[in-house]
Sequence to fold (355 residues):
Amino acid sequence: MQIVDATLLPYRLPLTSPWASAVGRWQSRQGWLIRITDQSGRSGHGDAAPLPAAGTETLPQARSWLLSRFARLTGETPTQARSQLPQPGNHPAARCGLETALLDLQSQQQAVPLYELLGGSPGQAIRLNTAIGGLDPQTATRAHTAIAASYATLKLKLGLAPIHTELDLLHQLCDQLPPGVQLRLDANRAWRNAEALQLIEQLNPLPIECLEEPLRHPIGATLAQLQTRARFDLALDESLPGYIQGQQLQSIPVRRIIIKPTCLGGLMPALDLIRLAHRSGIRCVITSTLESSAGIWPLCHLAAAADTLTTPATHGLATSDWFSRNLGAPPAIVDGQVTVGAVPGTGFVPEPEAG
Fold:
């Protein structure tokens, strides 16, 4: 079934509170909702949500790239259009959004949910972590709220205060955690090598599930030394592009990598990377870069496929509550898990004003 129309709809979505990370702070999220329509009137949707601070192009660059590609879509099938997409390069967020819209439309045409097109199995519940911010007097309250919602993995930002202060607060928090609840720490490249080596020994007795980006200067040999000493996984996030050469994954010095399709150029490049990592014994966690609901739906399908192809992980996709309004309903999270269901496509349904 051929494509007859492609539309680009700008959006700005306010957040319930500022989103802070190692790469910036945001009060709202901007992007482009992509809609691709075929002869039967079916529409596939994708979210082009650039985040330059995370390594993507800018909003104007994404728009320019998308409009240049739209001119080539009419008369093509989604499969043909996908085959003509360039390799991921300087416009990863735009490419991710366009590829997602084409995959959504293709899976609708084939009457299958997207995860099936990606190699996933039906009925899988995808485990999610939830973010509880940094260490402050309210951290324990936020942790208990998350635990009451049945989250067993809580993501915590470190590197925002002096090390000794954070360690004291971290021990206090861990003393209050029930059995089975673990912390996923993100150090935001905060520590010098010597500091990190000392901290690993102090973190080892605690219920830590993973530590992301511990080093200010992430040298491979030092990361490998840290991983040898750590009882838990270390993970590459912002440092990961330095280990990707073309279609190959170079020797990874840690046991885990963070997969962000918006930064990698799409679901299919992300899936290729997951397969490469799996063959090397590296675990993968799929994580949001604060996409709209149009972007979170396909990421959940990717997580379902990844959990079929590799050892199931706890993914970082519970971010929709940060939006005070959205482009459509996000996937429902129940007991810290999401199931994408058997609806053809991604399952995303735009609100009328979103297109």
